[in-house]
């Protein structure tokens, strides 16, 4: 059932307030009172929708991942109908990078130094989604180790690679290209999954 327009507007104001306050202080120091004052919304109204600030940010991340999941499914349908492993992961990587770029106002402050809680919360969402991709395609993608180990390895490797590249002020398109190269190398080396057939030219990664 769709939410009432007024509820969506109230939630949007609260989420925007959180994003704006995060530029001034870490998440752990932000109070519900501050969020309400910043968005001109009463505490009663806040608690009518959220139990606490953690529920608010959890909803924000969940919405992002829902959008990224839809993007992933569309990409799979468009350029990977046979579910080739490398193209599957490249599509997933594209969706994660798009998610990050589209939500830069929040995610730029979601770092391990600035906001460790938000960082680990967002990262856990990403890892769970990678786990789901592998689980749903376990007949095609055959991990050598547990799905959690493989998902953690891939996500940690790519996250560190991209974080260092962004810290060096490398452009997002170069980061995207190089991250795909690294990811493809990991998969082709059969470090974490069983030997995979080479992708066809029509479905090779960008």
TrEMBL record:
<protein>
    <submittedName>
        <fullName>TetR/AcrR family transcriptional regulator</fullName>
    </submittedName>
</protein>
<dbReference type="InterPro" id="IPR001647">
    <property type="entry name" value="HTH_TetR"/>
</dbReference>
<dbReference type="InterPro" id="IPR009057">
    <property type="entry name" value="Homeodomain-like_sf"/>
</dbReference>
<dbReference type="InterPro" id="IPR050624">
    <property type="entry name" value="HTH-type_Tx_Regulator"/>
</dbReference>
<feature type="domain" description="HTH tetR-type">
    <location>
        <begin position="8"/>
        <end position="68"/>
    </location>
</feature>
<keyword id="KW-0238">DNA-binding</keyword>
<feature type="DNA-binding region" description="H-T-H motif">
    <location>
        <begin position="31"/>
        <end position="50"/>
    </location>
</feature>
């Amino acid at each position: 059932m769709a939410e009432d327009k007024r509820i969506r507007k109230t939630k949007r104001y609260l989420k925007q307030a959180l994003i704006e306050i995060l530029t001034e202080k870490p998440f752990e120091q932000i109070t519900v009172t501050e969020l309400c004052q910043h968005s001109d919304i009463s505490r009663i109204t806040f608690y009518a929708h959220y139990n606490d600030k953690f529920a608010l940010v959890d909803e924000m991340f969940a919405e992002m991942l829902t959008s990224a999941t839809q993007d992933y499914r569309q990409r799979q349908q468009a350029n990977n109908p046979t579910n080739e492993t490398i193209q599957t992961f490249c599509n997933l990587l594209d969706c994660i990078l798009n998610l990050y770029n589209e939500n830069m106002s929040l995610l730029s402050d979601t770092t391990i130094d600035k906001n460790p809680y938000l960082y680990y919360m967002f990262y856990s969402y990403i890892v769970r989604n990678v786990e789901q991709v592998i689980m749903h395609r376990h007949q095609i993608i055959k991990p050598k180790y547990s799905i959690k180990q493989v998902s953690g390895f891939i996500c940690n490797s790519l996250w560190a690679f991209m974080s260092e590249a962004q810290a060096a002020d490398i452009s997002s398109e170069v980061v995207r290209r190089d991250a795909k190269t690294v990811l493809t190398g990991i998969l082709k080396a059969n470090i974490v999954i069983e030997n995979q057939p080479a992708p066809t030219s029509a479905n090779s990664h960008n």
